[in-house]
Amino acid sequence: MARSTSDYYKKNPKAAARRVKQQARYNKTKGGKKLISDAKRLRNTLKCKKGEDASHTGPNKGKCEKSSKNRTRPRKGKKYA
User: Fold this and answer.
1) Band of the pLDDT at 81, cuts 50, 70, 90?
2) Is residue 39 part of a domain?
3) In what helix (H) or strand (E) does residue 32 lie, and over which residues does it extend?
4) Could you give the CA distance from residue 51 to residue 3 in angstroms, rounded to a whole number?
5) Would you state the pLDDT for residue 53?
6) Which pLDDT score, from 0 to 100, does residue 26 have?
7) How many domains would you assign to the chain?
8) Packing angle between helix 30-46 and helix 13-27, nearest 10 degrees?
9) Is the per-residue pLDDT at 68 higher than 90?
10) If DSSP codes are grouped into helix, strand and coil, which group holds residue 46?
11) Nearest-5° angle of CA 63, CA 75, CA 22?
12) What letter does residue 60 receive in the DSSP assignment?
């Protein structure tokens, strides 16, 4: 079994292409645009440096942390970190 989602998509290029196509459609929807704008606003508010992500720790809260740490955290139904 793949260790992470990115490992799975690296091993399955057809699945990766399907996901990119689906994600492009989602990013054009109202919900997708809101998600992108909220994330951008939080990054700007926190003034995250290059190589850092804004980790969403609550509805209007967050902290800057390394991208690798933030993106590998298992969510398992949780809305926030």
Assistant:
1) low
2) yes
3) helix 30-46
4) 22
5) 86
6) 95
7) 1
8) 90
9) no
10) helix
11) 100
12) T
